[in-house]
Design a protein that fits this description.
6 helices; Rossmann fold; binds S-adenosylmethionine; single chain; 9-stranded mixed beta sheet; alpha/beta
Length: 219
Amino acid sequence: MTGWQHTKSKAYIESVEQRLLNVRLTWVEQFLDIIADKSEGLPVSINDFGCQSFQFYKGLKLRSLNFDYHGYDIEKKYIEIGLRVFPCMAGKYSLMDISVAPPHRVSDISVISATLEHILDYRAALKNILTHTNRLVVLRTFFGDRTHCSVAREKGASHDYLIWEFSFSEIMGIFDELGFTTSIFRDQYTDSMPKYLSHEYVTKDIVRSQYVLVGERAT
Ligand SMILES: C[S@@+](CC[C@H](N)C(=O)[O-])C[C@H]1O[C@@H](n2cnc3c(N)ncnc32)[C@H](O)[C@@H]1O
């Protein structure tokens, strides 16, 4: 089955629209602070992987940052919500699986939040992203001591999906191999504290901690 919404509940897609209209997401603000710190005010091109309904673009717009943005997502329903709110995004997105094909362009900066941990072939996805980024990658995902995966069923969803937790060393090693130095930051929204995700899932015993990894291309 293509898309992604079949792994989520009806309440989830309603929350996507509600958050787009009403909420400034903490991770977006954290990423924009990191980018401001690293890009010295230069105009840049940005690829956003797992862009959903363009929450990150909303953050750029609210800060009046005229960056050259392009979003990538596998689920048409989320893109359609985004286009209703931001019609200017027509032509600024690609509907695709980032583990199957590379992005259509190289960018200065790539961002990916809460997406890599749901992709079966996360190594292919990460390679596609890193080989198409000139300067900076900001990645928000679940990290721990070892790489392992849970097959989870969200309450109200018709299909399972994957929730990986990655070992720091594996992901930092992939960045290193592809020419990036790495730093780890606490995720501001969760303070990188372990969260018991199973409240939202039929599947029990899933605990995850979210971190932000910043990769800078070594010169
Ligand atoms: C949990 S949401 C995160 C949305 C947003 N980045 C955020 O942090 O608020 C995950 C997003 O990744 C998309 N996605 C999942 N697998 C994907 C893949 N293989 N390629 C591209 N997008 C994918 C989903 O459709 C969904 O929009």
